[in-house]
Amino acid sequence: MKWNWGKGIVLGMLAFMGFILYMVITMSVDKNYSHDLVTEEYYAKEMVYQTEIDAEKNLNGLNEKISGQKTEDGWLLKFPTELTNENATGKIALYRPSNQKLDFEIPMNLINSQVVIPKKNLIEGRWNITIDFQYGGKDYLYKKEIVY
């Protein structure tokens, strides 16, 4: 059997396709390469997206803006002074894009229009914070990316 360029090109293409097929199967089956969805029920969340838009518009209508900063105790969130624990209820959710196991949620307990997210719950890096609360019969939604 004589070796020529045509056979070499065909064998090279077959080797490359075999390598790609091997990588696809390995990535699909191996649990080390498993990636989490941002949310488990993304379709159901998409259906209520308009209410989120309305809640964000309501937030922009407040006199003061919500702000946050890193402190020795954790992450300090400052709310508008018109909000108190008696007239505003809600929850604060923190999502860690790099590790789903670090995600957590706490109730919004305002003390002097402030909330401190404890340092023990946070590790350094990027977090997505979502504050979903009700005030005066309206829904409000605050979303922000923070670096702790």
Q: What topology emerges from the helices and strands here?
A:
Blueprint: H1 5-29, H2 42-47, H3 49-60, E1 67-70, E2 74-78, E3 88-95, E4 104-107, E5 114-118, E6 126-135, E7 138-147
Antiparallel strand pairs: 1-2, 2-5, 3-4, 3-6, 6-7
Transmembrane segments: 6-25
Protein name: FixH protein
Keywords: Membrane, Transmembrane, Transmembrane helix
Highlighted features:
FixH protein, membrane, FixH, 2 domains, transmembrane helix, transmembrane, alpha+beta
Describe, in plain words, how this protein is organized in 3D.
The chain has 148 residues and is of the alpha+beta class. The chain has two domains: 34 residues; 106 residues, Immunoglobulins (Immunoglobulin-like), CATH 2.60.40.10. It has three helices and seven strands; from the N terminus they run H-H-H-E-E-E-E-E-E-E. The strands form two sheets. Strands 4-3-6-7 form a four-stranded antiparallel β-sheet. A three-stranded antiparallel β-sheet has the order 1-2-5, with no helix packed on it. The termini are far apart. The model has no long low-confidence stretch (mean pLDDT 85). InterPro entries: FixH. It holds the Pfam family FixH. This is FixH protein. It comes from Nonlabens dokdonensis. Keywords: Membrane, Transmembrane, Transmembrane helix.
